[in-house]
Design goal:
Helix 1 runs antiparallel to helix 2 (29-43), helix 1 (6-23) packs parallel to helix 3 (52-70) and helix 2 (29-43) packs antiparallel against helix 3 (52-70). The chain has helices at residues 6-23, 29-43, 52-70, 123-133, 158-178, 182-188, and strands at residues 78-79, 82-85, 94-97, 100-102, 107-113, 139-145, 150-154. The chain has a 5-stranded mixed beta sheet, with helices on both faces. It is globular and about 55 Å long. It is an alpha+beta fold.
Length: 202
């Protein structure tokens, strides 16, 4: 992620407000929103991104929808923890950070905030949660949260998702073996034009 982006700042800030409200079920919505807005203002304090006000304005609705979607699951057992997996075919471990674990429900939930509601789990999100589930008996879900709506989808085949992730890592290794010149490697890549990084939508 580009951590200077206001899209990412609003994601992180919204999640902070949602998680605060999940850990304290009695916390008022207004207090959860305040936590999120304070965090956004901290993260985006020096931003000149034209999307800043639009992203900030979406936060109260996202926090509200997030709490509607996730409070029925109860209080998470753990939040925003690190997961590291080592694979014999890779020279370095893979590191990730989950959002929510509910041990009593046997479930990991990842929070994805945006301005548009996804109709299904994207491939990259499925791979991400599949990584969290690796070598566990947990099931995985992705909670998509927008200012007006929410949807929670189950990761149906985490084994396949994990295999896809490993295939990507192996391809990266082969690419890096071709050259140590970043510009040459970049010239070999095909960008994902569907990513928000290439969006002109302000």
């Amino acid at each position: 992620r580009d951590w200077s982006s206001d899209v990412c700042s609003s994601d992180l800030a919204s999640e902070a407000g949602i998680v605060a409200g999940l850990m304290d079920p009695g916390m008022a919505l207004a207090d959860c929103v305040r936590i999120a807005l304070v965090e956004f203002d901290r993260l985006a304090a020096f931003s000149t991104d034209p999307r800043r006000e639009k992203e900030r304005g979406a936060i109260p609705g996202i926090v509200e929808q997030g709490l509607i979607a996730l409070r029925p699951y109860g209080i998470p057992s753990a939040i925003q923890g690190k997961i590291v997996h080592n694979f014999h075919s890779l020279p370095v471990p893979i590191l990730g950070y989950y959002d929510l674990i509910y041990h009593d429900l046997g479930m990991i939930i990842d929070i994805k905030t945006s301005l548009r509601l996804a109709s299904e789990i994207s491939d990259d999100h499925a791979r991400q949660v599949s990584f969290y589930l690796h070598n566990t008996a947990l099931e995985g879900r992705v909670a998509y949260i927008t200012p007006q709506k929410h949807a929670v989808y189950r990761v149906e085949n985490p084994v396949a998702g994990m295999n896809e992730l490993l295939n990507i890592a192996h391809r990266m290794m082969r690419t890096l073996s071709v050259s140590d010149d970043p510009k040459e490697i970049a010239a070999m890549m095909v960008p994902d034009l569907s990513s928000f990084y290439y969006s002109d939508d302000a």
